[in-house]
């Protein structure tokens, strides 16, 4: 019983840190310091590092959490679409919209944060799993992550993005 209770407390503390980190990412971008996150969470840096051994680990944990939510949203919204090419186009557009609706992620997709954001997106197993599910090809999955990051950093109109995805992305992934 004690280990269950300790595990639940540890999980709650981890969830609280991720919530505060999201707020800090939204306010300061992805490169906010661990000291700032610890202060905002009301814990010591040692406590923060007990849960996340580096800033990158914390960033990737946040990305994994959000990627899971985005993946669920994509699955739900694609439920009635049977056409493979339409599913691919809509999946990319939904992913773009979902990332743009998250203030913490939006703060990362600036020209100044492009390097960090690209590196995190490409190193995230969660992001890779979502795109690989649609492509069954890890190389194509990495490419689509790069395309999505590019569209997030240098956005266009919704119509223009849809056209680009339909013309260049969907045919490549539909093979």
TrEMBL record:
InterPro entries: Homeodomain-like_sf (IPR009057), HTH-type_TetR-like_transc_reg (IPR050109), HTH_TetR (IPR001647). Keywords: DNA-binding. Residues 11-70 form the HTH tetR-type domain. Residues 33-52 bind DNA. GO terms for molecular function: DNA-binding transcription factor activity; transcription cis-regulatory region binding. Signal peptide: none annotated. SUPFAM superfamilies: Homeodomain-like. This is Putative TetR family transcriptional regulator. The lineage of its organism: Bacteria, Bacillati, Actinomycetota, Actinomycetes, Mycobacteriales.
């Amino acid at each position: 019983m004690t280990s269950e209770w300790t595990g639940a407390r540890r999980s709650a503390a981890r969830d609280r840190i991720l919530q505060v980190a999201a707020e800090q990412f939204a306010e300061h971008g992805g490169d906010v310091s661990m000291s700032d996150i610890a202060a905002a969470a009301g814990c010591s840096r040692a406590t923060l590092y007990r849960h996340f051994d580096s800033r990158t680990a914390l960033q990737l944990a946040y990305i994994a959490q959000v990627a899971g939510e985005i993946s669920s949203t994509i699955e739900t919204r694609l439920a009635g679409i049977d056409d493979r090419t339409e599913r691919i186009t809509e999946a990319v557009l939904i992913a773009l919209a979902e990332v743009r609706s998250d203030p913490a992620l939006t703060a990362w997709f600036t020209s100044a944060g492009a390097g960090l954001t690209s590196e995190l997106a490409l190193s995230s197993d969660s992001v890779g799993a979502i795109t690989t599910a649609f492509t069954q090809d890890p190389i194509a999955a990495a490419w689509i992550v790069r395309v999505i990051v590019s569209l997030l950093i240098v956005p266009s109109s919704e119509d223009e993005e849809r056209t680009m995805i339909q013309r260049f992305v969907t045919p490549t992934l539909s093979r």
